[in-house]
Specification:
heterodimer; A: 474 residues; two-stranded antiparallel sheet; 8 strands; B: 334 residues; mainly beta; 4-stranded antiparallel beta sheet; 2 helices; globular
């Protein structure tokens, strides 16, 4: 296999999942790009996390009902799910179809919402929008529980259009009017939540959607130019037929999987970075009747995605940063104590999972990084990759040893960069790494003392690489 | 007029009452996974809350009349602490033995919760442990333990001396896949919840295989990840069919008698909690009217134990409570 092919597979595994260690990378390379992609796109064709074992070893993680246990559970799944793209898609939708614990104040409901993204995030977008519109947590988060026939609250109707499906505008045009927002909100009156059992004395119970026909505005509405006695269901049908919806979802996919786009509010006036890809995704959206998996297949087989120019061009989100390093280091690859603390790392890096700052979600790309979050990103990953007790790090050291009895400083630097990525770095960065390696000279293994020194210097080099600017990108 | 009886109608298993409520400390339970009942109906319940609340890792001591007595132990790996407690049993003196499947050790406390000793070493050899899960103690002081990741049952003296073993990984007779609960009948036969094989296995006291009950599934007589088993003086077998959210009752030869889905009614402690929180009473009234059955049902029942009177105690893990059933020959009118 050419190194470029290995790089391409590594690119796919980073973007369609949370990265891979070298063993998996080699296995996937042997499997081939198309076959690997087929597997990623067919999560139900392969076993997932063993939920029964989760209950047995970590009872509080099975159907978690506190926000702490829900985040813990999700991070465990992101690290360990064999269905990596399914888990990545749950993160994708969470960054777009946003609701947060700060208002919902019910961990169980946040867990239910993420499970919905996991279970249905690769199916029909129409189906996903329906599930979202009947998700009790979302209805509460965006005040649809306070929207009544006689007193309409427009919050859900507005965000459904602006942030969840069509976007404000495209190609310099507005996608909908204020009257459309009002009609949309009227159509969703009566979409509410049934009373749930209180937390005392036996813990939280799952909220249930309830449609109240007496509280539904059944009158005639004109929405996006179509007139009728629309219910929420009809509105979703109309939304899904809009070219703007195809554009919006396609562009979000390109933004999440290919290249960081400018912030969403500017999309009306700013064309997509990869217009041909977005157009192809729009066509696929309609041709497949809104099938997300069909769109993902087009995206991951596109030249835009495979292009060398987009590799390591996206700033890793905090979740990608933390989970990728954990997978590479081989840490928490099975259920064990201590993951709760680790599951807070994305939060410390600026991404409080299940609790986005607003319904608009997080500002992504370079906005993930500021002086505080950069320190956290570097500290966490360099501590992890410098921990030579961890199985993944030990495995990388063993592979370095297999390169030869003695490694020159150049071989040490290049070997470590290769195992961590393969990670291309600027010449200046490589010179800095090399300068450090040259201070220790050639590194050997064989005797116990040499092995210890080899391990120390390899771990140190992994730490330094984790601290580079290049490692912030994925 | 004729009456047609179908099924086994010589006995009935009837719900009596529930004890406990969800609590991180004090009078209640949080993610309880197993219990043991001693003299005077004193129950020892081990709690496995989420890592974010290590303060709630403890053993709750409470009578089956719902009188809270005390709690002991804490989260950690020091002597007297617990990390992943998974099984509990009492010796004839009332000392409390707890299996910790993370620390691979058995911790021993007296009946008042004072730490006495611990033993256990990680490994695969005779007497070594790899995720010890359930345990039961015979009157002669022999402790039987499911050594889950070694897929076997081991027997020890109470001070940890290896006495014997049986079983290995597999799905044939006498083999196991991550066994969990274990109990004895009055004749000393050993019953094991063969969790990963979705069945119950019965052995002689010497460890010879006698019978297997069940297969994977959700129909009657089938199990999904059974976590616990116990046997009453009539020989009837109670199985915590955890993954199917029910308890199944079988005859001594494994025929299906009935399945319990849970019948919870508010416990005294539960009522006290609600009375102190009137807003929750109002919310509860609306929820109850909307879905009266929700609260009754088991939610991952993972342990079944019999008290000294033969009452069945079901540890209803996700709801933080214990539902208690009694066996009657003449069922009450329902």
């Amino acid at each position: 296999m050419t190194s470029n092919y290995v790089d391409l597979i590594a690119h796919l595994l980073r973007r369609a999942g949370f990265g891979a260690d070298r063993d998996e990378l080699e296995a996937r390379t042997a499997q081939g790009y198309d076959s690997t992609l087929d597997e990623l796109l067919d999560p139900l064709g392969h076993p997932g996390i063993d939920d029964d074992l989760v209950f047995r070893l970590h009872p509080a993680l099975y159907i978690p009902n506190s926000i702490e246990s829900c985040v813990h559970d999700w991070v465990y799944r992101m690290i360990n799910s064999p269905r990596q793209l399914q888990e990545k898609m749950s993160l994708f939708w969470h960054t777009i179809l946003c609701a947060g614990h700060s208002k919902i104040d019910d961990g169980l409901e946040m867990g239910v919402m993420i499970s919905m993204f996991r279970d249905h995030g690769m199916g029909s977008f129409r189906d996903l929008l329906y599930r979202l519109s009947t998700n009790p947590g979302m209805l509460y988060y965006l005040d649809n529980t306070e929207s009544h026939k006689v007193a309409v609250n427009e919050n859900y109707g507005r965000e459904l259009l602006e942030l969840f499906s069509m976007g404000v505008g495209m190609d310099d045009e507005m996608n909908y009017t204020e009257d459309d927002v009002k009609a949309c909100a009227r159509a969703f009156t009566g979409w509410n939540v049934a009373p749930a059992y209180p937390v005392f004395p036996h813990g939280r119970s799952q909220w249930q959607f309830r449609f109240d026909p007496a509280d539904h505005d059944d009158g005639e509405k004109t929405f996006l130019g179509e007139t009728g006695r629309w219910n929420g269901d009809d509105i979703l049908d109309i939304i899904c037929r809009q070219p703007a919806t195809a554009r919006f979802i396609a562009r979000h996919m390109s933004n999440f999987f290919v290249s960081d786009e400018p912030p969403v509010p500017s999309w009306r006036l700013t064309p997509p970075l990869h217009p041909e890809l977005v157009q192809t995704l729009e066509r696929t959206y309609f041709e497949s009747e809104y099938d997300i998996t069909a769109m993902l297949r087009v995206l991951f087989t596109s030249e835009a995605f495979k292009s060398e120019s987009v590799r390591y061009s996206k700033v890793k989100s905090p979740a990608e940063m933390a989970i990728g390093a954990l997978r590479l280091a081989g840490e928490h690859r099975e259920l064990k104590p201590g993951l709760f603390e680790v599951s807070l790392e994305p939060k410390y890096m600026g991404m409080d999972l299940m609790n986005p700052p607003t319904v608009e979600g997080w500002h992504t790309g370079r906005e993930w990084i500021d002086s505080g979050t950069l320190v956290e990103r570097i500290n966490f990953t360099s501590d992890l990759l410098g921990n030579t007790e961890l199985s993944g790090v030990r495995s990388m050291i063993d592979r370095l040893k297999a390169l030869g009895q003695a490694l020159s400083p150049e071989a040490l630097v290049d070997g470590c960069l290769d195992l961590i990525g393969p990670l291309p770095v600027h010449e200046e960065t490589r010179e800095q790494l090399l300068a450090h390696a040259q201070r220790g000279g050639e590194v050997c293994h064989g005797s116990a003392a040499e092995d210890a020194e080899f391990t120390r210097r390899a771990g140190e080099m992994f730490q330094m690489i984790a601290s580079t600017a290049e490692y912030q990108f994925g | 007029m004729s009456t047609h009886f179908f099924g086994l109608n010589q006995r009935a298993i009837e719900y009596s009452y529930s004890i406990g409520r969800n609590e991180f400390g004090g009078a209640g339970f949080r993610n309880p996974v197993d219990m043991a009942v001693g003299d005077d109906d004193v129950a020892y319940v081990i709690n496995r809350p989420h890592e974010s609340r290590p303060d709630a890792v403890r053993v709750t001591v409470m009578t089956l009349d719902e009188e809270f007595i005390s709690q002991f132990s804490s989260y950690g790996d020091e002597e007297g602490q617990l990390t992943w407690a998974s099984g509990v049993a009492l010796d004839p003196q009332g000392n409390v033995f707890i299996a910790d499947q993370w620390l691979d050790r058995i911790s021993i406390f007296d009946k008042d919760g004072e730490f006495l000793d611990c033993w256990g070493k990680t490994g695969t050899g005779d007497g070594d442990l790899d995720r010890p899960a359930g345990l039961v103690i015979r009157d002669d002081g022999t402790l039987f333990l499911t050594d889950s990741r070694n897929h076997r049952v081991q027997a020890f003296s109470l001070d940890g001396r290896f006495k014997g073993k049986f079983g290995s990984l597999g799905d044939g007779h006498g083999r196991f896949n991550l066994p969990w609960g274990i109990s004895l009948d009055k004749d000393g036969n050993v019953f094991v919840a063969d969790w990963g094989n979705d069945r119950i296995q019965q052995f002689t006291t010497e460890g010879e295989w006698r019978a297997s009950f069940g297969q994977p599934g959700s129909s009657i007589g089938q199990f999904h990840r059974p976590a616990s088993v116990c046997v009453d003086d009539d020989g009837d077998i109670y199985v915590a069919d955890t993954g199917n959210n029910r308890v199944q009752v079988l005859t001594p030869d494994g025929r299906f008698v009935t399945a319990l889905a849970g019948d919870h009614r508010l416990s005294r402690l539960g009522k006290e909690k609600l009375l102190a929180n009137p807003d929750q009473i109002r919310q509860r009234a609306l929820a109850f009217a909307n879905d009266p059955d929700y609260e009754r049902h088991f939610n991952y029942p993972c342990s079944v134990k019999l008290d000294r009177q033969g009452r069945l105690c079901v540890v209803d893990s996700k709801q933080g409570r214990i539902q208690i059933y009694a066996k009657t020959k003449e069922p009450t009118l329902v």
